[in-house]
Amino acid sequence: MPWASFKHIFYTLILFISFPSLANTSYPLTVLDGLGHAIVIEKQPQRISSKTLFSDAVLLDLVDETALSSLTDLAINPNYSLIIDRLPESMPLLGLNIEMIIANRPDIVFAANWSDPAKLSILENVGITVFRLQAPKNIDEIETEILRVGMIVNKSDEAQQIISTMRLRLKADIIPAKHQFTGMDYNPWGTSSGRDSSWNGLLEQANVVNIIKDYTTDKYGQVPISKEMIITLNPEVLFIPAWVYGDENTAEQFKLQVLSDPSLQSVSAIKNNRIYQVPHALRGVYSQYYVDAIRFINHSVYKK
């Protein structure tokens, strides 16, 4: 069986091994975090602080808002967040502000595994449990991380429901493709996302072949791209940013630049007008809303 077909079965087995029961969580609970460290949760968290957009989105589906002491400050930013319309009115929205987090007295803080370790150590030193979340790269890893958070907060059934909804949406919403287009993302700083990126998993689920998936990536999953490479690869679809940090006009200027570049006119994506701007909030999502990103890509390319 090829890996592409076997992969989902493999990750499903991992789910059952890692989370053998969806019954109530028994505490104290020991869980490996996103750095591979064993974290002990002594009792069910009653006050939860979320410092990633992933945990913001997942926790809003898992627990009552009264259990949340704060969400991340990016949750209200339309360039990053897909949950603005779900935010409780009085919810504190905080970055990694140590003093304010401590003042809110959470039982546990969910942070990214790349968050400032010095700041997180301060929280741990005052007795707050910190759980560093792994950044998933595909839908199977997202499901695993959702179940992990659900188990920690004693909401395993609710976590499983999130996953079931994701799978139902994929089955109902994603257009099958007799011919899968080749595609790639391209940005003003001249990189594209390879195999070691959430973008690659997104394209795979959207029935688009990432044309640079076999190229060597840097530690961020990026591949340096030149115009000559684009011409040689000749992608059938090109994805570019709908927003670029620092300048509201950069994305539109870049689109016009790509469309009008004489050297790129022979590229299939440009010749056939298959260039799509991807909203940044979808481009970088890795919560249950990953399905929305998959749907956006799939429908952009295949919907008549």
Description:
This protein is α/β, with parallel strands linked by helices and about 300 residues long. It is built from twelve helices and 13 strands. The chain has helices at about 5-20, 55-60, 100-105, 115-125, 140-150, 155-175, 200-205, 225-235, 250-260, 270, 280-285, 290-300, and strands at about 30, 40, 50, 70, 95, 110, 130-135, 180-185, 190-195, 210, 220-225, 235-240, 275-280. A five-stranded parallel beta sheet has the order 5-4-3-6-7, sandwiched between helices. Strands 10-8-12-13 form a four-stranded parallel beta sheet, sandwiched between helices. Helix 1 packs parallel to helix 5 (about 140-150) and helix 5 (about 140-150) packs antiparallel against helix 6 (about 155-175). The two termini are about 35 Å apart. Mean pLDDT is about 90; it is low at about 1-5 and about 15-20.
And the CATH topology of the largest domain?
Answer: Rossmann fold
Flag low-confidence runs. 1-7, 14-18
Order of helices and strands: HEEEHEEHEHEHHEEHEEHEHHEHH
Would you count the extended β strands for me?
A: 13
Provide a compact summary of the structure.
This protein is an alpha/beta fold. It is built from twelve helices and 13 strands.
Question: What's the topology here?
Answer:
Layout: H1 3-18, E1 29-32, E2 38-41, E3 48-50, H2 53-62, E4 68-72, E5 93-94, H3 98-103, E6 108-112, H4 117-125, E7 129-133, H5 139-152, H6 156-173, E8 182-185, E9 191-193, H7 198-205, E10 209-210, E11 222-224, H8 227-233, E12 237-241, H9 250-260, H10 268-271, E13 275-278, H11 280-283, H12 290-302
Parallel strand pairs: 3-4, 3-6, 4-5, 6-7, 8-10, 8-12, 12-13
Antiparallel strand pairs: 1-2, 9-11
Helix pairs in contact: 1-5, 5-6
